[in-house]
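Entry, Tuesday afternoon. Goal for today is a structural model of the target with pyridoxal-5'-phosphate bound, before we commit to ordering more compound. Inputs were pasted exactly as handed over by J.K., no edits. I checked the ligand SMILES twice against the vendor sheet because last time a stereocentre got dropped in transcription.
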Amino acid sequence: MDEELSLDCHDWEDLRHSFQIAADLCISKMEGVRDDAVWTPTPDRVKAHFNKALPQEGAALDSLICDFQENILPYGTGNGHPRFWGWVHGSGSAAGALGEMLAGFMNSNVGGRDHIANHVERQVIDWCKNIFDFPSSASGILTSGTSMGTIIALNVARNEKADADVQNLGVSASRRLVGYASAEAHGCNTKAFDLLGLGRESLRAIAIDDRFRMKPDMLRDKIAADRTAGLRPFVVIASVGTVNTGAIDDLCAISDICRAEGLWLHIDGAFGGLARLTDRFRGELEAMSMADSIAFDFHKWLHVPYDAGCVIIKDEAAHRAAFSARREYLESTETGLAGGAPWFCDYGPELSRGFRALKVWFTIKAYGIRKLAALIQQNCAQAKNLEAMVLAAPELELCAPTHLNIVCFRMLFDKPPQATDALNKQIVAMLQTQGIAAPSTTTIDGKTVIRVCITNHRTRSEDLALLVSEIRRLGGLIDPQV
Ligand SMILES: Cc1ncc(COP(=O)(O)O)c(C=O)c1O
């Protein structure tokens, strides 16, 4: 009889050797990251390499590691580099990567059942409840990110606050449900409204003040107008760190309105929420504990490798009721592998789930929350220094106040507004393609701005000084009159 097949190797020493080579490669890359280009565009030759037919036969791991070294590793996003400040990207960490690899070996399915990964995830969630001062009776689940955490939280809020059994009968059984967020709130909130059958326009964009924060008076007025129109307000989404400028909504005022109006308070704390760990922001973010739910990410300002987010929900029973739908083949038992409680499949839409918590646990245990918090505070101080450098440079204009870790500014040109916008985009593209730095762009008050979001534990003050001098140099190159 032919030997029966398996995916295991014949020579375990060979396998150990392959892992050593791969680990060496990745650690050397991390060690030398400061000397690399921030970003290297993927050449056409390499893109073509990933346009091949489905392999019928296997290849040796060592040859795949060579392929990885040549065709994959050099062309990443660049967010491990000290001068990556685009969008909101965490910079990763060695401890987190180790946790990710070990989770791959364990290959746990964390939808439920009685095994250790559930306990690790519960441990991480308990730490988060502690960070945000949520009661120990609250629940939570690790997610792919804040986008998914938002969908989960708003699903619970929708079911709790509708005036009919929308979970079973659909949203049309209720008066039209509407919610509120600042005009600067992240697009994932609008997407969640869409996915939950509420409609994108049911998320009202509330006007902002000169610090880019939701205006509580306008919120109150809009809720009243919607009630008069026969609609059913159900949720307010407060932002702790808006994506454009890092603004923090007035949590006390918004929480008072939610309490008076009987609305669910959800907080989008994707990156800014963890600033609550710092001395600088603890007071301002004290009122996060008033929320009914908070969605936030470990992969941003805690540097856990992608992807790792979380949502915590104060009312555990409401959370479980929104997702628990176990059929006979998933029944729990008193003893055996089908025991253990709670099961995470009862707290989110997914049944099969990976062991995300391990990389979070590794990161928090390896560095300790004190150091992780100090790095958040360091990034905020670096942002303030960059703001000062911008204010001191006559050819640069600050476009929003810097409160947290984001600096929005632009180079001034003696040109019409559209040309100035285009030149600022060109500067950012040049910084990126020349591998110097990777800020991103956004639009503030109708102007294209250069946006530097520092969620980077490798950034040093000299990196930001270099950014300013390179922007001025490139600005002078593309318009010598500057
Ligand atoms: C304020 C804010 N909310 C939500 C999100 C979405 O988070 P994720 O990309 O983890 O889904 C982001 C992403 O940058 C964000 O900055």
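The radius of gyration is 24 Å.
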